[in-house]
Amino acid sequence: MINFAQTFIDALSLGSLYALAALGIGLLFGILRLINFAYGDLITLGAYALIIPSTEAVATLFIGGWPWFMVIIAVAVIVVAAALLSDLLVFRHIRRADPATLMIASFAVSFVIQNVILMFYGSRPKSVDLWSNLNYQIAVSGLRIPLLQIVTILATLVLMGGLTLLLKRTALGIQMRAAAEDFRMARYLGVRGNLVIGLAFAISGVLAAVASLLLLSQTGTLSQTMGVPLMLFAFIATVVGGMGSLIGAATGGFAVAFASVFLQAYLPDDLRPFRDSFVFGIVILMLLFRPAGLVPTKALVERV
Amino acid sequence: MTDTAQRRFLRAALPVLALLLGVTAITALVALLGNDEMALTVTEALVRLIVVVGLSVFIGNSGVVSFGHIGFMCIAAYAAAWATCNPMWKQLMLTGLPVFLQQAQYPFWVAVAGGAVLAAAVALVFGAVILRLSGIAASIATFAFLAIVNNVYSNWDSVTAGVSSIIGIPTVVGPWTGLAFALGAIVLAFWFKGSRFGLMLRATRDDPVAARASGVSIVRVRLAAFVLSAFIVGIGGALFVQFLGVATVDMFYLQLTFITLAMLIIGGMGSVTGAIVGVFAVTVFVEFFRFLESGVAVGESVLALPEGSQEIALGIGMALILIFRPKGLTGSRELRLPGLGSSRRAMAPPLTTTEATARS
Amino acid sequence: MLEVEDLAVSYGGTTALAGVAISVKEREAVCVVGPNGAGKSTLLAAIAGGVPPKRGRIRFDGKDLVGMRAENIARLGISLVPEGRHVFGTLTVEENLFIGTYAMSDQRHAQRDAEQLLGYFPRLKERWRQPAGRLSGGEQQMLVIARALMTRPRLVMVDEPSLGLAPKIVDTVYSTLLALRAERGLTLLVNEQSSDRMLKFSERIYVLRNGRILLHGNTADLQDGEAITRAYFGFDEHHTPATSEAAA
Ligand SMILES: Nc1ncnc2c1ncn2[C@@H]1O[C@H](COP(=O)(O)OP(=O)(O)OP(=O)(O)O)[C@@H](O)[C@H]1O
Ligand SMILES: [Mg+2]
Q: Do the chains contact at C90 and A191, CB–CB below 8 Å?
């Protein structure tokens, strides 16, 4: 029972991280039909922004040494700027392209960001000690819960709550939801396409920034591809949850995390290394048998 | 206007012949006049040419972007590695290999054929399952396939040596072997494009509704292209490890997927000529930047671009192509020779479905 | 008010419009009829900025619309109700209705306009907080027409309002459009496949086929339907477009 509860909390915290990243990807897909591969590299960028650019093996904290709220704000500003820049320089010019072309363009952006990081920070992974006191474990009735897991879950709840308020209660948010469902129709009604898209990139940037801080405090290691696996799982989360639906993206994040964590815990030993294959296999099955995802939106059925 | 069968054949065949000659000439020039390093570069480029031409057989004809073909390359590459690597090493490191692979060392030909056939067989099974999905959903499924192949080959330690390399593969592939297979791949791609299946497939791409109405089974024609393209890409994979002498699973993942797709897009997704031009253009471009990264003497001092510039330039180049020339350098058209008029088969004009099925 | 000249649009290889000219005057009700694939939807979408023209001019109050963004065209006072309704299914009826006024940040008349429009479409009031995706087809059609009117456009373009609706509901839709026109001095440009109803509804009719205008004239002169039928089925295709003498 204890074992199960521990696994459950692990899944919840991993699911929070996936849900955060999946929301960022789902938001852009809903509005632009862009599956943004560069999202993982925005996460990487956020983490590297904490240290002084140098190719030396030892990392020296820069932004990372500031008070925690300043760290969040500064990283968010940097990542949002990068996200907006990627739109301004690349995606804005191919708005009418089909999803596969957009995905390839995001590959190109991803490749560029990864190598810019390589150029300024060198290729060796570096260890960084960000908020290591979060690794402190709280013992609750036989369970040992790292503080970081609680922080991750709380951060996700706060961001999801904020995002929900924004989308449901503000004029801009309602326009975004309309645009996510039917971009062209929204524009016929006067919704400014570039404003809404810019906002979507900005929000996805904030989510990526928080994800990068949580990821880094968990792993403690910087590498040029550190964001890629998170992006991949977030991406499949949006497919599983229902592309274009934000509730779907969040649900998908938790679903994928629960699948991973429970497969890890309960698969036979010799199959355990292939856990990710099972997770990716689920994606293919979803596409075949439930293409609209766990939380289907009507809009999507026409889309994919 | 009367048109003899012979002239029609010439019209179709001459541009293909010209492309074959072009590739041969460039290879010969570099292999005979260049240094060893250049011979390696051209061999690698030819292997990539095979892979990209293979990609174009599926992507170019079906219009569905596949992110999974490097997975097929990986499967074939490992099959070739299992077949040719030193048996002593295999018995020590790859304890899970079946005896017929573990005990023996097979010749080059067997390795290439075996690898390509295995890739094609996997493509047949996987394609039959996913190719009924529509555009982007099919693309996502191919992506999931790539991730699965990577995960399995990274962790199946007793058979693939996990994330470490398989070593001791005889390096028998040089520029001439590469050339022979590249020419074969090009001919195969043109043959498929002009075949009944190729025509039908392009009809389904251009007008899926009409194609379905006219009874073309989209899944069946897509599957044919998918299997053939996996076969060609598989040949590329089998050659690649016998060129490098090692096989590592990380060679066959996102980076190579990106580079091969970049080549295809830069050249032009819709044509075999595009695939060839793309490989050539990207290789020259990358080599040029690699040269700049290694340092150029300017007067007294040596100027060198920092590490990573080459990749950044490639990414930017690709984004520029997508923005300003979405059909690639060739405009996704096949090579045209002046004075021959347009060649229907090689040109691949937009076909109506009725036309395509009428020819079948 | 609206002048379209020599408008050509193509999608990839297929030509949807090949040199179309129409004009609409203030407070007119003008109708474009034509068979499937004639290019009717494309014409309206091009005017609204949804598809880029290959060549031609589109002028609204003398201002050139070609190359303008759809959202800015909407701000000039042109509202399109596209084919197939396009409600935002996950948004509530209320949210759907106010999208335009949010977008143009013009809430001055929004509440009053909404009240007034709900007078025409009382069913919508009952569904006020429900997701619009749950409305019936007829209710959705009412919602998109009301939604298009919320920003006080001067030209309203409706693409096949009768599509998939029962004849009785279609009658309601058209009588509402006419009532709104009388009340607000709207100008209407409506697409339909069949001309029957249009002979009563509109003042002028254009017949579009294969991306060309084959006939245009005053409704009054076309009441017997013969000329329209001929144009509609393409009997006159190889002649110059017929124009009834009285046409403006
Ligand atoms: N998005 C598109 N992509 C490609 N071709 C299109 C697209 N939209 C329309 N077409 C083509 O353009 C032509 C005109 O289409 P359009 O939708 O304007 O006709 P329509 O008169 O509105 O027909 P309907 O009465 O069926 O609505 C048709 O041949 C159609 O196939
Ligand atoms: Mg239409």
A: no
